[in-house]
Amino acid sequence: MDEDLNMSMRKFLKQVGVTSQKEIENAVTRAREAGTLPDGPMVARVRLTVEGLDLEHEVEGTIRTETQS
């Protein structure tokens, strides 16, 4: 794979990861403060689309707070 393309993708994915984690942490803090944080695991989904390519990719996972086991 082209080195520039590879580095560009890695930079984008790092930005997605860092900003997504911050947004989730902020939402959890707000929900805790409001007393609305769910008791059980939360399902999270991310949809990736790339304009110019025929790409739609979805990732789904579970997020648990530290008070959940």
Fraction of residues in β-strands = 25-35%
Provide the low-confidence segments as ranges: none
- Element-by-element helix/strand order: HEE
* Chain-averaged pLDDT: 94
Query: Biggest sheet: strands, sense, closure?
Result: 2 strands, antiparallel
Alpha plus pi helix count: 1
What is the helical fraction, as a range of percent? 40-55%
Please state how the strands of the largest beta sheet are arranged side by side.
Answer: 1-2
Radius of gyration: 16 Å
Output the structural class.
alpha+beta
For the terminal residues, how far apart are their CA atoms?
41 Å
Q: What's the number of domains?
A: 1
Query: Would you count the extended β strands for me?
Result: 2
| Shape annotation | elongated
List keywords for this structure.
69 residues; alpha+beta; two-stranded antiparallel sheet; 26% strand; elongated; DUF6494
